[in-house]
Amino acid sequence: MAFVYERDPQAIYRQSYATIEAEADLAALPQTLRPVAIRMIHACGMTDLPGNMAWRGDPIGAARQALAAGATILCDAQMVASGIIKRFFPSTDIRCDINAPGLADLAVKLGTTRSAAAVEMWRDVLAGSVAVIGNAPTALFHLIEMIESGGPKPAAIFGFPVGFVGAAESKDALIAADLGVPCLTLSGRRGGSAIAAAAINALSSEELRGNL
Amino acid sequence: MAFVYERDPQAIYRQSYATIEAEADLAALPQTLRPVAIRMIHACGMTDLPGNMAWRGDPIGAARQALAAGATILCDAQMVASGIIKRFFPSTDIRCDINAPGLADLAVKLGTTRSAAAVEMWRDVLAGSVAVIGNAPTALFHLIEMIESGGPKPAAIFGFPVGFVGAAESKDALIAADLGVPCLTLSGRRGGSAIAAAAINALSSEELRGNL
C-alpha cells in the first residue's frame, strides 16, 4: 500500500506550526517566547507546554545577543549538542564535556554525578556563554550553586532537566534563585534533550525568518 | 545556598525506577516490555506512556537476538544515535545516514524528506537490522513502504516519530501493516529521539542486570 502523507519539509513545518498555534495557549507568553514555545512543542508533540514554561528576565534576547557576540553554547548532554542544528549557528562553538578525559575521576572527587562534574569543567568558559541543561537535575543544581557561590555567570540559562529525582526541584530552584542571569525553564518532570535543543534552535535567525 | 539533592547516580536510578513502578500501569504490558517502558518513561518524565504503547510480536526478544548476532542499529536521526549508550553495545555498529553525502539530492529525486531518503539508503543493510525511528514520520512511512513493496526486512522496528503531521498516522500504519516484523511504537503525537534511544538502551544486558 502506498500511503498518502505530506513529504515536503516546508509544508510539514508550516502545518505543524499552524496546528501548534491553533491549539497552544501562546497568548500567556511574552512575544519573544512564543516562537521558542512553538519550536519546543514541535519537538515533543505536546501543546500544553506553555502552562509549565517559567522564566526570569529576557533569556531569548540575552542569548541571541551573546551568540551574535560569539558566545559558546555549553550543553550538559551529547544529545542536546546533537540536536542543535549546526547550520543555524555556523560560527558558534557547541561544547559538551560529558566524555571529557578525567571526568569520571572529577565526579568521584566532587561526590556527584558525571553530568554535574562536567558543569564544573565549564568554569573557565562559563562567563557570557549560553548554558543548556537538557538532561541532568544534578547538572542544573551544580550550575546554580557555582553561580551563587560567586562563580562566573553565563549570559543565559536554558534549564530543562527531565525525570523523577530532582528535575522539578532543580527547575524550581533556578526560578527561585536570584542569579542575575536570564533563564528559561519548564516546571515539573517534563524536559529533556529534544526540548532543550529545540529552545536553542529557536534562537537562530534562520528560524525567526522561517527559513527552515 | 547549598541545595540538598541526590548526587549518587545509582541512587538516582533506583529512586527514579521506584517512582515509575509505583505510578505507571505496567501490569497491562507483557513482561518483556516492562523494563523497556520504565526506561522510556525515565527519559521523558511521563508515567502515562504505557497506555499509548503498541506492539506486534516480540520486538524486544527479536531485537536482542539480532544484536547478539551482530545486527546494526539503524537510526533516522543523529540525536537517536547520540542517545544510545555506546558502552551498552560495545560491538554494535550504530548508523545514521542523515548527513550522508548525496542525501539532499536523493531526497529531491524521491520527492520526499531527507529523513525518508536516509531510510532509502539503508536498503543494503536493512535485512536483520534493528531499525529505530525517533524523529520523522516520513522516515517511518518510507520504511513501511519499502518493506511492503518487497524490500529487505529488519529484525525489529522501533517506531517513535513525534509531532503533528503524520506522526500518529505513521505509527498507526506500522501497527496496522502486516509486515512480519516485530515492532514497538507509541500511538499519538508523543515520541522523539530520547524515548527512542531509551527503548534501545533498555535492550542491553547491562540494563537488564541493573548495571547502570
Report on this model:
The structure is a homodimer of 212-residue chains. The first copy, chain A, has 212 residues and is an alpha/beta fold. The first copy, chain A, has one domain (51-208): Rossmann fold (3-Layer(aba) Sandwich), CATH 3.40.50. Chain A is globular and about 55 Å long. Chain A has helices at residues 9-23, 34-44, 59-68, 78-83, 103-110, 114-120, 137-148, 167-176, 193-201, 205-208; strands at residues 53-56, 73-75, 94-96, 130-133, 156-159, 183-186. In chain A, strands 1-6-5-4-2-3 form a 6-stranded mixed beta sheet, sandwiched between helices. At the A-B interface, helix 1, helix 2, helix 4, helix 7 and helix 8 of A face helix 1, helix 2, helix 4, helix 7 and helix 8 of B. Chains A, B: Residues 12-204 form the Cobalamin biosynthesis precorrin-8X methylmutase CobH/CbiC domain. Chains A, B: Belongs to the CobH/CbiC family. Chains A, B: Pathway: Cofactor biosynthesis; adenosylcobalamin biosynthesis. Chains A, B: This is Precorrin-8X methylmutase. Chains A, B: It is an enzyme of class 5 (isomerase).
